[in-house]
Amino acid sequence: MEYIIFGNEQTKVYFGEEKGYLEKIEYKGRTIDLHSKLWSVQTKEGELGIADMTEFRHECYDGVIKLFWANDIAKVGITVKNGEDGKLRWRINADVFGGEVVRRVKFPILEGLNFDTENYLLITWQNGHLVKNPVDTFLCKGLEVPFWVGYGTGAYKNEYPAALSFQYGAFYGQDYGYYFVTEDPDAYIKTFEYEYNKEKHAMDLTIVNYPENMGKTTSYCMAYDFVLKLFEGDWQTATNYYRDWAIRQKWCKKKLSEKKLPEKLVKTDLWRINHHDYEMGTRTQEYFDTALKIRDAVDCNLALHWYGWNMSAHDKDYPEYISDEMKAKGWMEELTNWNKKFDDEGIVKIPYHNARLWEIKTKTWDGMNVAASAIKDETGNFPDEPWMPEMGYELKAVCPATALWQNRVADLCREYGTEVGFDGVYLDQVASFNATLCFDETHPHPAGGGTWWNDTYHSMLGHVRDIVGDERIVTTESCCETYIDVFDLFLVLDTCFQYAALNGLADAGSSVSVPLFNLIYSDYALAYGSVCEFSHRPDQFEFNFMRNLLWGLLPCIEGGSAEELESGAEYLEITKRGVDFYKKYKEIFLYGRLCEVPQYTCDATCSVDWVARNEQREQFPYTDTFPAICAVIWETAQGEKYLFAYNYGDSVQSMEMNGKTYEVSAKSFYSKML
Fold first, then answer.
1. Phi and psi at residue 652, in whole multiples of 5°?
2. What is the pLDDT of residues 528-552, one digit of tens each?
3. Which residue pairs from 87-91 have beta carbons closer than 8 angstroms and sit at least 24 positions apart in sequence?
4. Residue 16 confidence class, pLDDT cut points 50, 70, 90
5. How far is CA 116 from the centre of its chain?
6. Cross-strand partners of 48
7. Of 159, 310, 384, 609, which residue is most buried, by most CB within 10 angstroms?
């Protein structure tokens, strides 16, 4: 076969001369066979690909190649440019005619990726997960992905922005790997897909791009670069590439050291959430008493992430929150009084609000004609919302571009936030749940794709900030990067081993959490979490709590009911140990940055037993063995570097890093300026 060859000193791509398939990639003398179809255009009548095109040609310039395909109803062009540091920058444009329309454009499609050696796939869902040997442990099994993690069967698919917090990934083996990213500063809606290629027992990578006015437009012109770089290294190498680009985007206008953070956020030493014990939040006296007990035992400034403040079941009757019956009983006045009691004790409290959903059984659904503002799919129906159907709830997503939802969220933050004495608001799902295409042409946004999802949420959050002011805390679920400029804080729930949901799909223990958010953005944004419960075994609690802290998550515990605190002395002691270290180095954790999870050796190990669960709630017990010392490297806002470490063991342990030995006392932290 004859080839069209393009590239640079590091990487060359080989296109078939006859049809233009991407036949292979050459990287530093290694040849990778692919025969990839590169793109497809979904039209009204079906999908067009290279095999359907009757004409193919190319043009070469200095550092640029252009590939062109055509047939009776379409013209497609791809441009590939040489970028810095061996990067290849790709864009596509497509035009259809003869009555056809463009619905979706899949580009790039890279088929048959795999390695003969141990390999890893970095999935940037929420805070980030690393899957070992993904083709064997996950994709080839044909399992269905749980809806809260993504979707797909024999595949992993998810959208950016939101469910995917970042727009990059990495797939690498021992010798080399693929770093891929859409360098899109405007947050166009797109889907990343990792699918099983049965013929090659490999993985296919596809990015689905959605035009504005999908199903009506006759053209698509990609507004951002897809960047491919082959590299040597691991997930941290790829993450450093991404950080270099990401911190130059519009959501990173100021570092934390340059911002005025709410004073109550700065003073807080420990966050307490009751995500898994919603009912405790409705037992207000117990919630108050246990807050005082935790505060005093840990000797900290405490902040509450409060579920159940509205005295109703979770998700019930959103967004009416407080029922007419409870209002008639005086709960609004009583809630205001409780908030004053918390204030008197110096305890910060943030209420849960949902910023996506409306229950169709509420009186306001019909009374306010919410259906007209709800998200519609291509058939004009409401997309399925899988939350809580077993409870009989019928929740639907409201389009964030509509005036009704913009105003409703603002009103919630006023009525159930500032007016009853809360110290801010938590807006659930904004930075966690996937952007959803909407095709209602009466809404003020282009049908289907575009930047409107991110843009309209920014408009909404601007209104929220005007209402709550700069001194109240505005926070959300998970950590999608595009919202760094509008939230003070991000709630990260997926770092604890037993809640790393991909472990229920991959072989038990084959998926681990990695701290992408803080490695990329810790000097630009703050995160707190995760779900460290007093109901877990002490070794599980300690492992998660201390590692989360070293990774830069502001200290956070889950639950702490009166019953749990009766026998919770060991948990409180662990919590105090971590909070004391945080208080000592708060300036670094708030304004510095996590630089590295370094390579080091430690003779001793610790083991913890876990149980992962899949969509069917099947249990997968496994044991994780890890170094007795957990170590990270941080950098202060002034550029000084510190080694922070924690010894999980019951005796003094040592670690060796870069030719130096460090000793860490049992159950203790260690710090040293490097």
1. -60, 135
2. 987 899 989 999 999 999 999 999 9
3. 87/227, 87/228, 87/229, 88/7, 88/8, 88/11, 88/13, 88/227, 88/228, 88/229, 89/225, 89/226, 89/227, 90/225, 90/226, 90/227, 90/228, 91/222, 91/224, 91/225, 91/226
4. very high
5. 30
6. 41
7. 310
